[in-house]
Write a structure and sequence with these properties.
Elements: H1 2-12, E1 46-61, E2 69-86, E3 89-105, E4 117-121, E5 124-126, E6 130-142, E7 147-158, E8 187-197, E9 201-212, E10 232-244, E11 247-258, E12 262-264, E13 271-273, E14 279-293, E15 296-310, E16 314-316, E17 319-328
Antiparallel strand pairs: 1-2, 1-16, 1-17, 2-3, 3-4, 3-5, 3-6, 6-7, 7-8, 8-9, 9-10, 10-11, 11-14, 12-13, 14-15, 15-17
């Protein structure tokens, strides 16, 4: 009985799998920051280890030259450890290992005659670590109808552990702010999660607010000096249906609205809105989860932008996630 209950919990927690750790652009990262801890009923005194790979690409017009385009290809390997000391509380730590490939197109003024790139950078390392907690303050179970409902509050912080001093091997200057491994700032988030579980179907909804401080550096030559990522509002609804005991498919509609970033002007005399940042994205996100054993599950998901209202000239492509999750108890 305990094994069947553990399997139910593990598959249920994947209904909203994909956190907000991937930050290649100001509008990247829809969904729930604490998605990997979205179990409707945490198993007391248990650990959950989540290992996922996230791939995304994004581009925007250069701030300095409208004929140039900045592009980022990013791959995250996210290791998330969740611990539930009780049946209504989950504590989370997320460690992102990040690789980015950033390019600046030559535009009308190539650095090398006939060249296609004016600059490039390939940073690799630890990103901004996330700490969080989710508390289920209300739960209701109806054993006759096999239904369970729950409401939870989420809160946490992003720590400025990712490097922000990476320079170009071509120009020697710092590469773009969004190409750095971290934001250089503290980030704070809070949110609300609702789950409703039937026998073979789960409905989930979440809403979250993420706000960051100004970058914590006094170096005017830093890529993040006087830079502040705009406050973002993320959330979505998700449905997961079990086609079989060990296999489920899911579909989510997820969105993000981000306020424009702010930065120092060229003369470093005033703070202005950063061009080509911020806006609205709505994703349609199909996925699946496959329970390989009682305590381990494989999952995959793709977030496909179906509506964008972005500020300035920006473009984001689908985000792909593949991962596995283990319940340890």
């Amino acid at each position: 009985m305990r094994r069947l209950f553990s399997r139910f919990l593990l598959s249920l927690s994947l209904a909203l799998t994909l956190g907000g750790a991937a930050q290649a652009c100001s509008v990247c990262g829809c969904g729930d920051p604490l998605a990997s801890s979205a179990s409707a009923h945490p198993l007391a005194d248990s650990f959950r280890l989540d290992l996922s790979t996230v791939y995304l690409t994004a581009s925007a017009q250069s701030d300095d030259d409208p004929t140039q385009t900045e592009s980022v290809r990013q791959v995250n390997l996210n290791a998330t450890l969740n611990y539930s000391p009780t049946s209504d509380l989950t504590l989370t730590v997320l460690l992102p290992l990040v690789e980015k490939y950033w390019t600046l197109s030559a535009g009308d003024a190539p650095a090398v005659p006939g060249g296609t790139l004016a600059d490039t950078g390939t940073p690799f390392g630890i990103g901004d670590i996330m700490l969080g907690a989710r508390y289920f303050f209300w739960q209701q179970t109806d054993f006759k109808t096999k239904q369970h409902q729950a409401l939870a509050l989420s809160a946490g912080t992003y720590l400025p552990t990712g490097a922000t001093n990476i320079n170009s091997g071509i120009t020697g200057g710092p590469i773009d702010t969004h190409a750095q491994l971290g934001t250089g700032a503290l980030g704070f988030y809070g949110g609300l999660l609702y789950n409703h579980v039937w026998d073979d179907f789960t409905f989930s909804a979440n809403f979250n607010v993420v706000a960051r401080t100004k970058a914590l550096t006094d170096d005017p030559n830093s890529a993040v000096w006087d830079y502040t990522f705009g406050t973002s509002y993320t959330g979505g609804i998700s449905g997961q249906y079990h086609l079989a005991d060990d296999f489920a498919i899911s579909l989510a509609a997820e969105g993000r609205y981000a306020v424009q970033d702010t930065e120092a002007n060229d003369a470093q005399t005033a703070i202005i809105e950063a061009p080509n940042t911020g806006g609205t994205v709505i994703d349609l996100s199909p996925g699946f989860s496959w329970n390989l054993s009682g305590d381990s599950t494989l999952y995959a998901k793709v977030q496909i932008p179906v509506y964008t209202q972005l500020i300035g000239v920006q473009e984001i492509d689908p985000t792909y996630t593949v991962g596995t999750q283990f319940l340890i108890h």
